[in-house]
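Q: Here's a chain of 418 amino acids. Please give me its 3D structure as tokens.
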Amino acid sequence: MMRVVADLNRKAMMTRASVTDTKGWVVVCAGARDSYQAALALHQAGLLKTLVTDLYVPLDKVIPAAACRLLPSSIFSKLERRFRDGLPSSLVDSHPGYAIRNWLRPHDWMQRVDGLGRRAGSRAATERYSVLSYSHVATAAFVRVPELPKVLMQIQPHPAAVKRALASDSFLPEFPHEAGNELTWPAEVFQKFAREPLLADLCIAPSKYTRETLTQNGANSDRVAVIPYGVDVDFFTPAQISSDTFTVLFVGQLSPQKGLHYLLEASRRLRLANAELRIVGELPSNRRALRAYAVEATFLGTLDWAALRNEYRRADILCLPSLSEGFGLVVLEAMACGTPVLTTRTSGAADLICENKNGFVITAADLDSLMTKLEWASANREFLRDMRTAARETAEQYPWVRFRNALVNTLQSTTITR
């Protein structure tokens, strides 16, 4: 069986074959993963044959674009996220019915996720293309191309690591878990997703932490490459927004995995003077536990890109106290806006943090450390302002073009052994 291994250290004494010798790549993902940057990277390199996904809005076509612009701005802004300038819709195999079913019955996503993988795998098998698949849709794609190169984009830490982090956390057990996380997956679903890295010839991890969780759960370290995500440094930019209020911002799923319950409880216990906690993210259907924190936090729901950017700009600090996080794109977005970050060692974005320079890193599930750091930050807002330049400079090192180039270079420096 063909085995594709990333030549990470360039030490392997193997026969080298460039990936450009293959006929091309099929990319498959559910949702607008990484703003379609992986597919865009392969297209720019002349390697993309098709992207298989749920909903891709053809804003590069006159009639659909004109029709979408007649919609309310709140809807149009969401549809804009399902398109990437430079990635022609003619290269996309879009399945909007899949997206509609997910919106109507989001808790049933595990029952339909294989559909996209099967479509991508069948296309690749017929045309003899390689497959680059994001997590959760990979199994159905990979089993259809056993002898062809298969690359996994691992969006989260290994499921076993996430499950362990969630299971070991007994703080505020009444805090709502979103449906379908690693604790509630049926056993067969958990095993399927846990095996995905072992089916791949190469795994792309967004952080050192994610790579560590993969190797701890059976993945060969030579088969895992770390490629950090990027950020739109032209859109997410700093702006001078002054306020007398110390503002802490959280952006993400309102779930235990993100550590939100620690942040809410820290806010309640500290009762910092002249301070506010602002929460951006879709509100869960079960809001009982959140109502207890109505005084401590302002829940903003989901926001469009412009409104989100304003929240980053006005915040003194972004706090992402994740229990287990693959990367945390919001960290780069905040830093691009000049906002320092407080996150955890089990958040992939910790790779970006230089302590006391552009942010802070604490141990996950450590309420005392979180409270101590927030209390210090509230009393040292001038120090935080001095960190804004360093935060922006860090983000400038990670434009999306860096991610795209690194992905293509990694694929092109693979070795194939038989």
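Q: Can you summarize the key feature?
A: The chain has two domains: 3-230+400-417, 246-396.
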